[in-house]
């Protein structure tokens, strides 16, 4: 229970820090850059997943 409390405090603290960081123009730019990198990374993962899925469906099920 104590671990869950610390986890929730950390998550809430992160949201509060991001909110204040987003108010500053420099902080807003930093968060936008982080968001762009995350979107790029997830796009690469999605492309790789779809490519693997296409390969598997093309080859048919492995017996």
Order of helices and strands: HH
Q: Hey, roughly how much beta strand do the residues contain?
A: under 5%
Q: How many helix segments? A: 2
**What's the overall geometry?**
flat
| Number of beta strands | 0
Describe this structure in words.
With 63 residues, the chain is an all-alpha fold. The protein has a domain of 34 residues. The protein has 2 helices and no strands. The longest helix is centred in the middle third of the chain and has 35 residues.
In short:
This protein has 63 residues and is mainly α. It has helices at 2-23, 25-59.
Q: Which descriptors apply to this entry?
A:
mainly alpha, 63 residues, 2 helices, flat
Layout of helices and strands:
Blueprint: H1 2-23, H2 25-59
Helix pairs in contact: 1-2
